[in-house]
Amino acid sequence: MGGSKKHVVTRTSSPSLAIVQANPHDNREVVPIEAPIISSYNDRIRPLLDTVDRLRNLNVMREGIQLPTIVVVGDQSSGKSSVLESLAGISLPRGQGICTRVPLVMRLQRSSSPVPEIWLEYSDKIVPTDEEHIAEAICAATDVIAGSGKGVSDAPLTLHVKKAGVPDLTMVDLPGITRVPVNGQPENIYEQISGMIMKYIEPQESIILNVLSATVDFTTCESIRM
């Protein structure tokens, strides 16, 4: 080609973009230049996510400044915990009745270290934990924030997870919608939870992850109505 240098962009079987440059000694051979999309994502998007998290720590949303947020909603026992566990690779509290009683802010960060780093942050406290005891630590922190009963609170509990294989995401898991108070729950439990959900999903910056049980009629789902 008149001695000019050629560049070819092609798709590969892997989820990345391969950029290849012609070998100056053999025009029929190409030498790959690695430029995976994931590397570009980490270099360009991770700093933005960190900035949003720092702004969230400063409680700028209380001043009316809205931040992009993935909000996880669904009816009680709709399977939210299973979805989040598959994303984060950790175990979350399970059981009968309402398990999530406060907004659980899950900050997932991919790490190259083989040893996971997990800690909780709430009420100006930092509580280290590990994968084996994370569910118990979340329950204990929830009791401190919302009381040891069955009530709910809109004060957030932040869970930091740095481990290999997790996506770089920040999500807010909200209490599941319950219509009838049981087992000592306050009489206005539905109003408390629905008000909390609406506060998080109303901003245009919110991305709503609505988890539905496959056994529930789509048209009667309360979270869809909201």
Description:
It is a single chain. With 226 residues, the protein is α/β, with parallel strands linked by helices. The chain has a single domain (36-58, 67-224), classed as P-loop containing nucleotide triphosphate hydrolases (Rossmann fold). It contains five helices and ten strands. Strand 6 and strand 7 form a beta hairpin. The N and C termini lie far apart (62 Å).
Give the strand order, joined by hyphens, for the main sheet: 7-6-8-5-9-4-10
Derived from helix and strand composition plus strand pairing, the structural class reads alpha/beta
Count of distinct structural domains: 1
The CATH architecture comes to 3-Layer(aba) Sandwich
Major sheet: 7 strands, mixed
Keywords:
single chain; 226 residues; alpha/beta; Rossmann fold; seven-stranded mixed β-sheet; three-stranded antiparallel β-sheet; 5 helices; 10 strands; 27% strand; globular; GTPase activity; Dynamin-type G domain-containing protein
